[in-house]
Write a structure and sequence with these properties.
- The protein has about 325 residues and is α/β, with parallel strands linked by helices.
- It folds into two domains: about 230 residues, 3-Layer(aba) Sandwich (Aminopeptidase); about 60 residues, RNA polymerase II/Efflux pump adaptor protein, barrel-sandwich hybrid domain (OB fold (Dihydrolipoamide Acetyltransferase, E2P), Beta Barrel).
- Helix content is about 25%, strand content about 25%.
- The strands form two sheets. Strands 1-3-2-4-7-5-6-8-14-13-10 form an eleven-stranded mixed beta sheet, with helices on both faces. Strands 9-11-12 form a three-stranded antiparallel beta sheet, with no helix packed on it.
- Strand 5, helix 5 and strand 6 form a beta-alpha-beta unit.
- Helix 2 crosses helix 8.
- It is globular.
- About 40% of the residues are buried.
- Bound molecules: zinc ion (ZN).
- The site of zinc ion has 3 residues, from loops.
Length: about 325
């Protein structure tokens, strides 16, 4: 008996369809339960639609205000595990998030485009995570890089990061070589956007700001409006012009560095996207050696509380 999960035994989606055919967009909030900016933004869009402030003229818009109800109710990132890892349908659900995945995956597959709204722990500016270039490889084959790039560039933030699946798979292979399980499996890197791409769609994650930033729901709201406008789902008489190229900072995640020992330490309390010079020490291992930036770049997603054997920080380099 797991009362905390049975009390959150349903998932809610709101579906709107224009009478004319067109792209089908799905928007997710609170995939991580303590990241509520997307939920607030979706509630605002829902209220506008219900008040008749605007209508879809073509395609479809599905809004999932809370993708992980248990985590949302608890105010935590995860319910029983991270919903944004190994997001795959399963015949034998073990954890709460497996059951969510069995609902969410078919919903994603029934759409063409995903906007996944998140926030982050540390200070910093909003940014967009997008997928790989077009490729016919085995890890993450893809054919919609142009459309996905257009979506990434229209949302508002000017920092765009790619390379997640490749760098994650490299880290997983290294952990596997060390005899670890769990996040030693490359499929563990499949979250909402990776699943969407695996089903023939395209997808971006928008990190809207710090969890508590009062501006984050506004960032999320504008992103939904911009995505709806870009896809031509609705007219926006008062729509702000989309930003034009040139002002974007494009980064590629190049390396994930694992914490190996409890005495490994970051040399500074890094914030995500702090700039690094080639050769600059980022972390000191328990044996006194330093991990140094291989090139000019940025430190991304540093986690000073990472457990040994798990991802500690990423190194990202400018995409030239
Ligand atoms: Zn998140």
């Amino acid at each position: 008996m797991r009362p905390t999960t049975t009390a959150h035994s349903m998932l809610r989606a709101h579906h709107f369809a224009g009478l004319a055919p067109g792209p089908r967009l799905i928007v997710l909030g609170a995939v991580h339960g303590n990241e509520v900016c997307g939920t607030r933004a979706i509630e605002r869009v829902l209220a506008e639609l219900e008040a008749g402030r605007w209508q879809l003229r073509r395609g479809a818009l599905s809004l999932v205000p809370v993708a992980n109800p248990l985590a949302y109710a608890n105010g935590t990132r995860n319910g029983e595990r991270n919903l944004n890892r190994r997001l795959l349908p399963t015949d034998a659900p073990r954890e709460y998030e497996d059951q969510l995945a069995n609902l969410l995956c078919p919903w994603l597959a029934a759409h063409d485009v995903l906007l996944d709204l998140h926030s982050f722990l540390g200070p910093g500016e909003p940014f967009v995570l997008r997928g790989p270039p077009d490729n016919d490889g085995t890890l993450e084959p893809f054919a919609h890089a142009v459309a996905e790039g257009r979506l990434a560039e229209c949302l508002g933030p000017t920092r765009i990061v790619e390379g997640w699946m490749t760098v994650y798979a490299e880290g997983a292979a290294r952990r596997r070589a060390c005899g670890m399980k769990d996040d030693a499996d490359a499929s563990y890197g499949i979250g909402t956007t990776e699943y969407m791409r695996s089903q023939g769609g395209y997808a971006v994650t928008l990190e809207c700001g710090q969890h508590e930033d009062p501006a984050a729901p506004q960032v999320a709201y504008h992103a939904i409006r911009r995505a709806v406008a870009l896809l031509g789902l609705a007219e926006w008489p008062d729509f702000e012009p989309l930003p034009r190229g040139g002002a974007f900072e494009r980064l590629r995640l190049a390396t994930v560095v694992d914490r190996e020992h409890a005495n490994d330490r970051l040399v500074r309390p890094w914030a995500s996207f702090d700039a690094l010079r080639a050769g600059e020490p980022v972390a000191e291992r328990a044996d006194g050696t330093f991990w140094r930036a291989p090139r000019d770049g940025r430190v991304v997603f540093p986690d000073p509380s990472a457990r040994p054997g798990h991802e500690w920080f990423y190194f990202a380099e400018p995409l030239g």
